[in-house]
Amino acid sequence: MKKGGIMQKVKYNLTNCYGIHKMDGEFDFSSNEEKSTNAVAIYAKNGLMKTSFAKTFKKIQDKKQKEIRDEIFDIPGEATITIDGKDISEEDVFVIKSFEASYQSTNLADLLVDESIKEKIVEVLKLKSDLLKDLEKASGLKIKRIQQGKNIRELESEIIEDFSMDGSILLGLELIQGRIGIDFSEIKYSDIFDNT
Fold first, then answer.
1. Is a pLDDT exceeding 70 seen at residue 45?
2. Out of 23-27, 56-60, 105-109, which region has the weakest mean confidence (pLDDT)?
3. Average of per-residue pLDDT across 50-57
4. Angle separating helix axes 155-162 and 115-139, nearest 10 degrees
5. Structure pTM?
6. Which one of 5, 59, 135, 183 counts the least CB within 10 Å of its CB?
7. How far apart (Å, rounded) are the C-alpha atoms in residues 116 and 26?
8. In this structure, is the dihedral angle defined by the CA atoms of residues 111, 112, 115 and 116, taken in order, positive or negative?
């Protein structure tokens, strides 16, 4: 799908995809006089089908489509997906995992249709990334670290918690800006705030 385009039809044919034995069909996002909405919902009594569907699309997003398989029976899987007649690419996919508290993605702004808002979001995300890199150098904390094989976002969550910010480092910094009159920049954050 070309960047900025709006998809009309997604055809899918999934075989042996993480518990989905066989599933094929079409999502029609087009709207017309008979159908005023362009949303599609997937329903399953349990979370298995949705999880399997998300895992399959996550492999596509991560350019690991050849790894798609039925994990229980160790059978190679296959996912054939087209958007408006063209093969899907990793840029067309953004999987949101229900258990993740926040998302860091270079293509997060691509979810937005309005170009002016999209440009502002891209700029804010870049400024936030630069800020976190500067804070990482000055604080002694890492932006993220690996614990038990999982990426843990350390720096931002620590600052939000320690300064009782309301879930957002950017909004929190705005609240404390101008309140600090003494320069503590030579002191490492991790020397003051330590969980031990």
1. yes
2. 105-109
3. 90
4. 80
5. 0.53
6. 183
7. 32
8. negative
